[in-house]
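Show me any protein, fold above all:
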Amino acid sequence: MPDVPGPDGIMSERELVERYIERQPVSEKLQRALRRPRPVETRPIDPEDPISPQPLPTKKYYWIRASDQLPGDLSLHQALLAYASDHGLLSAALRPHAYSFMQPDLQLASLDHGMWFHRAFRFDDWLLYSIESPSASNSRGFTRGQIFTRDGTLVASTVQEGLMRKQPQK
């Protein structure tokens, strides 16, 4: 498991969004989208600034968990983690290029996404998502991730290829 700070004391994605909106006003429509309730709580370590991105390493880490307590059904925990696992993968491929999902001239799309579950876990407890992008070229970004429990047990792995294309300005 990567040696990173635990989730306690790290700003949530929601808190970071509020800071970004205060610093750089965005449209009301975008504010509503950014502030809508989410089923997953996220706490990024070394977050990128979506409004003024700077070049960053292709590795990123964040803590994730369900926003509420869940029943004990493992298949529910796996389904929610599969849903949450798509979040943030392509941003690792964007980091060295100083781009974010908020750039108006950027088109992003998941082209394929694979996931493997290795062990049982609870998604209402913190999991560390470790993501890296070993390749980004020709409008494609390749990413892979590992998901660990707090005690360092690897519970799932992911891979994704995504489209990352600049659109001509109109």
User: Anything to note?
Assistant: The chain has one domain: 13-166. The chain has a mean pLDDT of 89. The first strand starts at residue 40 and ends at 45. Residues 13-166 form a domain with the Thiol Ester Dehydrase; Chain A fold (CATH 3.10.129.10).
